[in-house]
Amino acid sequence: MRNPALEKWGDYDRDDPYPLFAQVRAGGPVHEVTLADGHRAWLIVRYEEAKAALNHAGLSKDMHAALARDGAVVAEGLPGPAFARHMLGVDPPDHTRLRRLASAAFSRPRIAALRPRVQAIVDGLLDDLEARGDAVVDLVKGFAFPLPFTVISELLGVPESDRDDVGSWFTTLLAPSSAPEPPAEAVAASESIVRYLVELLARKRATPGEDLVTDLVHAADQDDALSEQEMLSTIFQLVVAGHDTTTSLIGNGTVALLLHPEQRDALVADPSLVPHASEEILRWDAPVQHSTFRYTREDVALGGTVIPAFAQVIISLAAANRDPDRYANPETLDIARANTSHLAFGHGIHHCLGARLARLEADIAFTTLHGRFPTMRMALPRSALRWSHGDGLVLRGLSELPVILAPQGNPQRTPLQRSARPPR
């Protein structure tokens, strides 16, 4: 008998989807599903099949080609197909070209050089939260969101004076909705983003800076290496990927640690454990729950199932990361786990370009936050938290995380060193 959950995949409890993922995974690695919007797709939920699919030559990311062939294929979100010519929405050789143009900004030396700046931003944000003196603070609004958004804005060259508006538009655009059509506020936010990015390109042409948008403009104007549409698409994708996933990683990870106080205490006592713990958090509660859409160029055999040609495919990274065939006690968070390899950043040619940056931000955020506020606790029970942030199937994160930074009567650790506050 067909599992009823497969009839409306995506219409499930976002606050705790893992029991459902385990149930579906136990039924096999590959399933034909009906998405919540009525479209048909194939879902992959086990680790080995997911890893194979993520780098399978028979699966394409070129949704323009899919839409041209079959209008029933789902186009992913706003601003729409016109902004889909970025590295996550094309195949080689276009993918190779677009990724190469952005890759220098995310190289190992460039990311390592960002450490002092990221530390300064973290310290400044925590200074602000502490200075407010509020009994309860929202860790998403006050810390987990502005940290990665500030970093990616600086990398791209988005002026500080524009960031409140841009951040608000992206927050509105990425807010979940159960309506069959995008809500009016999301459409308005999308239009504002498109208009702003067009204006930003014009500004960088007139007044170049030391930033990634200027580099893209130069490549387009001097070397004819990419089109205007590809520039706009790439900037849009980098803003989303550069802040939203890390916001969710910091929020999800903080909840995970607060629910496992003995493991959190171990991190506070020995901050060198944080990088390993971050990998386990990524495995245990991935901020990107499903990969972005692919479709089959031909019949593709995976896990004993043949997915027919020109079918839509989604890969559940979150389900694969808790596959008991891959991990011992996969439902348990264990920061001492020997095997913390995971698919949270994807695999193959579409492996997340910003993975190094996300790791750097998460490591500094977790080390500083939990070292500075070792007695921090959630202001609400776990059952009251809502994982309502994200776009459809792909992203999953907290819209807010109310915490008490230093409960009254509990000692608060003073950080060994605070970097200079970032400029306002």
From TrEMBL:
Domain of life, per UniProt, equals: Bacteria
Which protein is depicted? Answer: Cytochrome P450
> Do you know which InterPro entries this protein is assigned to?
Cyt_P450, Cyt_P450_B, Cyt_P450_CS, Cyt_P450_sf
Which keywords belong to this entry? Heme, Iron, Metal-binding, Monooxygenase, Oxidoreductase
User: Which Pfam families does the record cross-reference, listed alphabetically?
Assistant: p450
Q: Give the family this protein belongs to, as stated in its UniProt record.
A: Belongs to the cytochrome P450 family.
List, alphabetically, the SUPFAM superfamilies matched. Answer: Cytochrome P450 (SSF48264)
Q: Does the keyword Lipoprotein apply?
A: no
